[in-house]
Design goal:
- It is a multi-pass membrane protein.
- Keywords: Cell inner membrane, Cell membrane, Membrane, Transmembrane, Transmembrane helix, Transport.
- It comes from Subtercola vilae.
- GO terms for molecular function: transmembrane transporter activity.
- It holds the Pfam family BPD_transp_2.
- The chain has a two-stranded antiparallel ribbon.
- Helix 4 runs antiparallel to helix 5.
- By secondary structure, it is mostly helical.
- About 70% of the residues lie in helices and about 0% in strands.
- It has a domain of about 220 residues.
- It contains 14 helices and two strands, in the order ββαααααααααααααα.
């Protein structure tokens, strides 16, 4: 179900993980577009929606889809820059903590009498600074992104909880809280989906249609080879971590307005949902491969599955087990397909060698 060809050399080039793969442009256009991991996720999403609509009471109602989109919007937003980060072979675990810190920033400044619009801007600046700190420690100091973002996960969450403690700020202008929950007439489609669509288009163009995006894929395949070909590896990663920080801050602002509450523990654990959706959407954890349409389908698949199971009175523990099993199956299937492809290629190479020797 993949259109990539895994490297078959005994040892991968320096700076490249063995599991990373190149896209196979020798296959037909139809195969490259439709016979892919991303299209498999989209097909599975369509099947789940159809089955749930038929078998689960009230699932096919506009209000269900409205709340589904409202619930998944923060994950959809953060998944955009997270996709680019993981394609480079890095990861950012601090995104949910940055959401919490952004929420607390808005709440604290609003409580202090600042105009809420100014509080929004300050929260976005905090996101940029937080992302820049991650980027600096990873690209300049040279620390692993996993270790750095585990540290900043605790740091940003600690700052958020420290600023507000166990209290919550709930006094926000009704105009803004109404916007966060507003819908387009009777369609049930939330207004907040508009900024997501704009950002999705921007990130899709950036990743798939620019030299910057090609550099992202090149870094994921081999950072040393990318550097030799003229890609500014450190600068690219630094920019991506800043984008992750500012989009997480924006998601935190939306989260605050949607629930009308700024708390230090807002969005706790959301980073796991983001990463699970990105990987389920076909992005390789080793880097070098992924597409935004698959990631968006992955987010919606997890959201639709959870919504349908809750309406069917399935417990949250069982939902977590099913979601986790889906993610494990997704990662294992990718590794298995890569192994099967390598084995098939080796057999093909052996047969060609045997035929050549016989002909000689």
């Amino acid at each position: 179900m993949s259109d990539t060809t895994t490297l078959t050399s005994p040892a991968a080039p320096a700076g490249q993980a063995p599991g990373r793969s190149y896209r196979n442009y020798g296959s037909s256009l139809f195969r490259r577009i439709f016979v892919t991991r991303e299209m498999a996720v989209i097909a599975l999403l369509a099947i789940v929606i159809i089955v749930a609509s038929v078998s689960v009471k009230n699932f096919a109602s506009p209000i269900t889809f409205s709340y589904l989109l409202l619930d998944t919007t923060p994950i959809l937003l953060i998944a955009l820059p997270m996709t680019l980060v993981i394609i480079t072979g890095e990861i950012d675990l601090s995104v949910a903590s940055m959401m919490g810190l952004s929420s607390v920033t808005v709440g604290t400044l609003t409580q202090a009498g600042w105009p809420i619009e100014v509080a929004f801007v300050v929260a976005l600046v905090v996101g940029v600074i937080g992302g820049a700190l991650n980027g600096f420690l990873i690209t300049v100091v040279g620390l692993p992104s996993l270790a750095v973002t585990i540290g900043t996960l605790a740091l940003y969450r600690g700052l958020a909880v420290g600023l507000l403690g166990t209290t919550a700020v709930t006094d926000f202008p009704k105009f803004w809280t109404d916007i966060a929950k507003a819908k387009f007439a009777a369609t049930g489609i939330p207004v907040v989906i508009v900024p997501f669509i704009i950002l999705a288009v921007v990130f899709a163009v950036l990743l798939h249609f620019t030299s910057f995006g090609r550099g992202i894929f090149a870094i994921g395949l081999s950072s040393e080879a990318a550097a030799f070909s003229g890609v500014h590896v450190e600068r690219t990663k630094f920019i991506l971590f800043m984008l992750t920080g500012v989009v997480s801050a924006f998601a935190g602002i939306y989260y605050t307005l949607r629930f009308g509450s700024a708390r230090g523990d807002n969005a706790t654990g959301l980073e796991l949902s983001v990463i699970a959706a990105v990987l389920l959407g076909g992005v390789s954890i080793f880097g070098g491969r992924g597409a935004l349409h698959g990631v968006i389908a992955g987010v919606l698949l997890i959201g639709v599955l959870g919504s349908a199971l809750r309406l069917a009175n399935v417990s949250s523990d069982v939902i977590n087990i099913i979601t986790g099993a889906l993610l494990v199956l997704s990662v294992v299937s990718t590794s298995f397909l890569a192994w099967a492809r390598k084995r098939r290629q080796r057999r093909g190479g052996t047969k060609k060698t045997a035929v050549s020797a016989t002909a000689g």
